[in-house]
Specification:
Number of strands of chain A: 12
Oligomer: heterodimer
Strand order of the largest sheet of chain A: 1-2-5-4-3-12
Order of helices and strands of chain A: HHHHEEEEEEEEEEEE
Helix content of chain B: over 70%
CATH topology of the largest domain in chain A: Thrombin, subunit H
Shape of chain B: globular
Number of domains of chain A: 4
Order of helices and strands of chain B: HHHHHH
CATH superfamily of the largest domain in chain A: Rod shape-determining protein MreC, domain 2
Strand content of chain A: 25-35%
Distance between the termini of chain B: 20 Å
Distance between the termini of chain A: 58 Å
Largest sheet of chain A: 6 strands, antiparallel, barrel
CATH architecture of the largest domain in chain A: Beta Barrel
Structural class of chain A: alpha+beta
Number of helices of chain B: 6
Number of domains of chain B: 1
Radius of gyration of chain B: 15 Å
Radius of gyration of chain A: 24 Å
């Protein structure tokens, strides 16, 4: 009886192995078809999904109640600071308009932008990828930069289908961004450390970088446009290797839980990895 | 009989839906893997061919939305649940405790495979997140197993 059972099990195992091989062959050949179809299906059934996502954000806020309260008080303090600064800026604005008129400077950016909606994000928490509801039919291509309305860098497109594109955020593994300090123009590299924090590396020891400084993408990047907002310097972090270089821990400006609409810069296509 | 499969399939679709939308993150962070826990329970209560169908469907969803390459989740799920099948065959004595161990072993193998895959692709900082995910999933699985046992 036991031998018969074992025989049945072995037979089943052989069948399973053959099925697995066939499954693998089918699975690996269907990537281009299965991916957009699944995204289409999920987009159609996204109404309940949005409720789930909102519920998740709500529970997340509830669990981080204290930090939200702290952030609120910090924001109120910053708000007062900004109101004071606004008065100074009004004077600068007048001066700027005058200079602009005088020199007849054209508007700087002039990027062609396409708006899209983020419909899905990585459910495993390990890759930081996302899907948008526009694809090659709207002229999107791999390598294009994805930003927010206020020029905050989200990431870039890495895979495009007819109606959908998959993007890779700046939180993706092994992302390295060449950044520039907006105040002191110091160049450095922003990358993830072993704990998953964003770190500002290769900062010369004598450089003038302060806590709260804003970092933008520099012209050294091969994947990102120059001038996009990346992160804020959060605190000083001790360098593990060369003593002549400083390191800082950064706070990304991107808060993804509140994002749904994004902009894609369609002007220049960068090479995909 | 068919009703049982139909209800299970509906529950599976709901679980995948919750996994996708409730787990949606862009910041790399630990996420509870309820799809894996569901597959473990399917392994215990349903035939293997049905389990393979569900593995296939789960892999399509996870490979589309995450994964370092296409097929990564399929391979990892097949390895971990095949380990579970072998353990069920050779170790299980229809006792709750052994099922708990088998389920935990599947979870360990699954996250170990994820860890190795990520180490091969040179992303060592994800190790901590994978470990956290492993802890969350293990604890949730144990809690769910005890709950099921109580209900029974």
């Amino acid at each position: 009886m036991k031998q018969k059972n074992n025989f049945h099990f072995l037979l089943l195992l052989v069948i399973l192995i053959i099925t697995s091989i066939l499954l693998f062959r089918f699975y690996f050949s269907q990537e281009k078809i299965l991916k957009p179809q699944l995204v289409y299906g999920l987009e159609r059934g996204g109404l309940i999904g949005n409720y789930l996502f909102n519920f998740k954000n709500w529970t997340n806020d509830l669990l981080h109640f204290n930090s939200l309260r702290k952030q609120l008080s910090e924001l109120q303090y910053q708000n007062i600071k900004f109101i004071n600064q606004l008065q100074d800026f009004k004077e600068t604005k007048k001066e700027n308009i005058l200079l602009k008129d005088a020199l007849k400077i054209k508007d700087e950016t002039g990027w062609s932008l396409v708006s899209a909606k983020i419909i899905l994000m990585d459910p495993s928490g390990l890759t930081g990828s996302f899907w948008i509801n526009k694809g090659t039919e709207t002229g999107l291509k791999e390598g294009m930069n994805v930003i927010l309305e206020d020029k905050i860098l989200i990431g870039r497109l890495i895979e495009c289908f007819n109606n959908y594109c998959r993007g890779e955020s700046i939180f993706s593994p092994e992302t390295k961004i060449s950044v520039e300090d907006l105040r002191s123009s110091t160049l450095a590299i922003a990358e993830k450390d072993i704990k998953g924090n964003f770190r500002l590396k290769l900062v010369p020891y004598e450089s003038d970088i302060k806590i709260g400084d804003i970092l933008i993408t520099s012209s050294e990047n091969t994947n990102f446009f120059k001038g996009l907002l990346v992160a804020k310097v959060k605190k000083f972090g001790s360098s593990s290797d060369v003593s002549s270089l400083k390191e800082f821990i950064l706070e990304p400006l991107l808060n993804f839980s509140q994002i749904s609409s994004v902009l894609i810069i369609t002007d220049i296509i960068f090479s995909s990895p | 009989m068919i009703q049982r499969y139909f209800l299970n399939l509906l529950l599976f679709l709901f679980v995948i839906f919750v996994q996708i939308y409730f787990g949606m993150v862009l910041f790399l962070s630990p996420v509870l893997n309820i799809a894996l826990i569901f597959l473990i329970f399917v392994l215990f209560y349903f035939p293997l061919l049905y389990l393979f169908l569900l593995i296939f469907l789960t892999a399509i969803a996870l490979d589309t939305l995450s994964g370092l390459f296409w097929g990564m989740n399929l391979i990892v799920l097949l390895i971990s649940l095949s380990t579970g099948i072998l353990l069920t065959r050779f170790l299980e004595k229809s006792h709750f405790f052994s099922r708990l161990i088998i389920g935990e072993s599947i979870i360990i193998v699954y996250f170990l495979c994820l860890l190795i895959t990520n180490l091969i692709f040179k992303t060592p900082y994800i190790s901590l997140i994978i470990f956290e995910q492993f802890l969350i999933t293990s604890i949730f699985y144990i809690a769910l197993s005890f709950l099921f046992n109580k209900i029974k």
